[in-house]
Amino acid sequence: MTNQIVLEAFKKAEDDSGKGSVNGKAEFLSEYILENYKYSISTKSLTRYYKGQSSPNLQINDCLALYLGYEDYKAYLKQNPGNKKNVFSGGMRYNLYSKRNLVILLMLILLIVTSGYIGFISSKKECMVWNQDHYVKTECKGLKSERRFIPYIYNNFKKIQVSDSISFFKNGKANIWYDKTDGEIELFSAPGIHPINGNTLKPITKYMVNKYFYDIKGE
User: Fold this and answer.
1) Is the same domain home to 73 and 98?
2) CA atoms within a 13 Å half-sphere pointing along the CA-CB vector of 108
3) Where is the chain membrane-spanning (predicted)?
């Protein structure tokens, strides 16, 4: 059975790329994720995920969630709770109605919780919080302002100011994302979720740049 997030990512890839074949959509996703999220996933692996032959790990799920406009995979599951019961890390699926598999599942959960606790106490900086225009690492304390540490977001997601050197587009595609709330436009260097109000950021358009910033007709 194919994970729902994979199906949704392939559907969006078909809309974005115009490619109808599974291989074509997988190739588009592979290139997009590498270019935008600096994470390498082979076309072959994506095809296997789509066919249900294996399951993506958490980092790949985070990339797919970002592509779909979510903050991360955790945010995707929160907004799509019906998908939780069929998705487990490591490519294993369990029939929750089977007693034997339920025992195995409980043992696995116990192992994950124990490992997570050991990892937690051995690392003082597992979370990150927004600080004016970028994320900073912090010790997890259970605060609402914290979010799970994601290397790509930590290294690439920043609030930016308009300047002569800013590049709104790269190879004809949006290179900047924005949020417009109460008439105020804020620009960010990567796709994702606004760190304060939780809105999904939108890719910049030439119309937006022409109207609010400057004329880019020559670009």
Assistant:
1) no
2) 12
3) 102-120
**Average pLDDT of the chain, as a whole number:** 83
Residue 97 lies in a domain: yes
Q: Given 83, 113, 148, which residue is the final one in a domain?
A: 83
Least confident of 12-16, 59-63, 124-128: 124-128
| pLDDT score recorded for residue 165 | 84
Q: 114 and 131 in one domain?
A: no
Domain hosting residue 157, numbered range: 127-212
The yes-or-no verdict on residue 91 having pLDDT over 80 is no
If one counts the domains in the chain, the total is: 3
